[in-house]
């Protein structure tokens, strides 16, 4: 916070561009109760678990709804996407009940996510030095779909429980953008903080491969909102000494800036009707990626994508879909890709079909006299 404010006032062009073109939200602590416990003990007397849970005993990072398992169960029953969505999966009703075992912090974060159309997020943690990306949930072997064979030199070991997100390549890029800019995160020749290096010297790992868990904030953010969220583990010491904080900042400064700049990679635009009015909750579909997003209340959208050419469509209830080709380039700066949707008459057609018992309406051939029965049916329809 101090760095952004000072560099902005000093005229740093990079920071000025970032601040003026990005809506930045910073949360100093998601678990202030746990932080107080860890601060009192300090680095020597504390351990990895101290301060991990809230005062009520909740592990916030595993306290969110497990939407991944619900999605996979729907896929098994072939309900996706015509009856079960592949995005913006609703929160189960039992989870929202007053007596549900949900932390007040978790409820606050979920409401915060629903209120703001976040695009990119990172939660900063300690105890390891790597970047973790979704899925964090391990898919049961019986639910695994038939997958294409991997190339023999792929960086991940064969793991029947490892289920990749449709945005796997994008998540890897985002994770690498942080880890590669960090001063020491890819120096894994000494192994990990506690065990062997799980990242193959890259500093990044999929959560389900490293530490499988259900109900993570990363999985929830991906499946319930438009936001791509990752976990950044800043170092082995969960509570560094004050004298070490300056070096920790230098290790992460460039990574934080580079990661935040990635929000401007991909496509963005407006979805409006023919009168120029914005269309909220329109669905943006990117060909080849089985995960859609929605427009915000102002009809605007952002979609982080790797460089390439994409077939993108915009769809909304009561409108005809619109399709166009959008190109994403290597330089930072999202490609503008706007859509104008025309009103559809399918709603009226469905009403007429329902009046006819959902049976096909016989076409009247000009020049051929109608039978009394046909004339009566026409009169009833009119």
UniProtKB/TrEMBL annotation:
**Record-level GO BP terms:** peptide metabolic process; protein processing
User: Where does the Peptidase M14 domain start and stop, copy by copy?
Assistant: 1-263
Sorted keywords for this record are: Glycoprotein
Membrane-spanning segments: none
GO MF entries? DNA-binding transcription repressor activity, RNA polymerase II-specific; metallocarboxypeptidase activity; RNA polymerase II transcription regulatory region sequence-specific DNA binding; zinc ion binding
A GO cellular-component term linked to this record:
extracellular space
CDD domains, per the entry: Peptidase_M14NE-CP-C_like
Entry-linked InterPro entries = CarboxyPept-like_regulatory, Peptidase_M14, Peptidase_M14_domain
Q: Entry's Gene3D superfamilies? A: Carboxypeptidase-like, regulatory domain, Zn peptidases
- What top-level branch of life does the organism fall under? Eukaryota
Q: Which SMART domains did the record assign?
A: Zn_pept
The record's comment on protein family reads: Belongs to the peptidase M14 family.
Name of the molecule in the record: AEBP1 protein
Q: Which organism is it from?
A: Rynchops niger
| Taxonomy of the source species | Eukaryota, Metazoa, Chordata, Craniata, Vertebrata
Q: Which gene encodes it?
A: Aebp1_0
């Amino acid at each position: 916070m101090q760095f952004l404010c000072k560099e902005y006032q000093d005229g740093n062009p990079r920071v000025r561009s970032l601040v003026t073109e990005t809506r930045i939200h910073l949360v100093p602590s998601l678990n202030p109760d746990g932080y107080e416990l860890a601060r009192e003990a300090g680095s020597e007397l504390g351990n990895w678990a101290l301060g991990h849970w809230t005062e009520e005993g909740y592990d916030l990072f595993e306290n969110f709804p497990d939407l991944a398992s619900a999605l996979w169960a729907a896929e098994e029953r072939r309900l996706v996407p015509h009856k079960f969505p592949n995005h913006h999966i609703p929160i189960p009703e039992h989870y929202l009940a007053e007596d549900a075992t949900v932390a007040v912090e978790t409820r606050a974060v979920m409401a915060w996510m629903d209120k703001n159309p976040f695009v990119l997020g990172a939660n900063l943690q300690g105890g390891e030095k790597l970047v973790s990306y979704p899925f964090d949930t391990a898919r049961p072997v019986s639910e695994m779909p038939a997958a294409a064979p991997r190339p023999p030199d792929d960086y991940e070991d064969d793991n029947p429980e490892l289920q990749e997100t449709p945005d796997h390549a994008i998540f890897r890029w985002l994770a690498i953008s942080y880890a590669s800019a960090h001063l020491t995160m890819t120096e894994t020749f000494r192994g990990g903080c506690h065990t062997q290096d799980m990242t193959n010297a890259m500093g990044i790992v999929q959560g389900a491969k490293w530490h499988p868990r259900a109900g993570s904030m990363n999985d929830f953010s991906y499946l319930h909102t438009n936001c791509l969220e990752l976990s950044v583990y800043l170092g082995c010491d969960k509570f560094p000494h004050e004298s070490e904080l300056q070096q920790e900042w230098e290790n992460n400064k460039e990574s934080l800036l580079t990661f935040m700049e990635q929000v401007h990679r991909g496509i963005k635009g407006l979805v409006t009707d023919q009168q120029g009015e914005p269309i909220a909750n329109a669905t943006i579909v990117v060909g080849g990626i089985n995960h859609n997003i929605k427009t915000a209340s102002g009809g605007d959208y952002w979609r982080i994508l790797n460089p390439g050419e994409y077939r993108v469509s915009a769809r909304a209830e009561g409108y005809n879909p619109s399709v166009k080709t959008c190109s994403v380039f290597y330089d930072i700066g999202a490609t503008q890709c706007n859509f104008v949707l025309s009103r559809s008459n399918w709603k009226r057609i469905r009403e007429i079909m329902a009046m006819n018992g959902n049976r096909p309406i016989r076409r009247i051939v000009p020049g051929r006299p109608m039978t009394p029965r046909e004339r009566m049916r026409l009169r009833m329809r009119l």
